[in-house]
Design brief:
By secondary structure, the chain is α+β, with helices and mostly antiparallel strands. The protein has one domain. The protein contains 2 helices and 4 strands. The radius of gyration is 13 Å and the shape is globular. The relative contact order is 0.31.
């Protein structure tokens, strides 16, 4: 069974500071080919959600195939959305 493609998009920013990695709302990344461009702190948070989505799980309170999570940097708090991409 082939693992589904995952796209990670910055959908909001809550913190008052600017992103230390230079990320902006609206940026999207392909998990398989561009994850190295994503902030390591955000990837640390993203990984468990990616695993859940890739292996058929769901996140309570979120639509199937999606996971919304925040950057752990209290000064920035970028909001990310990971989603399965239908090919």
């Amino acid at each position: 069974m082939k693992r589904p493609k995952i796209r990670i998009t910055i959908v909001d920013k809550i913190g008052k500071g600017g992103c230390h990695r230079g990320h902006c709302v609206g940026e999207s990344f392909d998990y398989d080919t561009e994850r190295g461009k994503l902030c390591p702190m955000a990837m640390h948070v993203a990984f468990p959600y990616i695993d859940i989505l890739r292996y058929g799980g769901t996140i309570p309170g979120q639509p199937a195939g999606t996971a919304v999570f925040c950057c752990p940097d209290v000064d920035v708090i970028n909001v990310f959305k990971a989603e399965i991409v239908s090919e």
